[in-house]
Amino acid sequence: MKTGISTINVETKQEFGGLTAMASNIAQAARTVASSLNNRRTGILKAIAKAYSGMLEEEVTVEKAARILNAQAAFVAVLLCGAAHPVLSLACVGWFATALLKCRS
Fold first, then answer.
1. How far is CA 87 from CA 75, 76, 78, 84, 90, in A?
2. Which of 70, 57, 59 is closest to 103 using CA atoms?
3. How far, in Å, CA of 50 to CA of 105, rounded?
4. How does pLDDT run across 24-71, given as a tens digit for each residue?
């Protein structure tokens, strides 16, 4: 009877080891995808920062470009939600106000 239990334990350990290896591979793939997406996003923000630099005739960093883009998105949300529910409109106006304050700093 001991032989049966030890066989089950060995099989369970092998299955668990296989699952651990699979989970490790999935985690590595997720890190690779996240890194790739982050690189693309940074590249896009660098291009936007370059465009803003040309328009404003001053150097715009990637962080500043992200703040300006956030303010523009908030402004569009205010325009689109203007006739919507009053609470939604107030939320959009609040978003726009905080986005503008972040642009100033």
1. 16, 17, 12, 8, 5
2. 70
3. 20
4. 666 676 777 667 666 777 888 888 889 989 998 999 998 999 999 999
More confident residue, 7 or 31: 31
**89 in Cβ contact with 74 (< 8 Å):** no
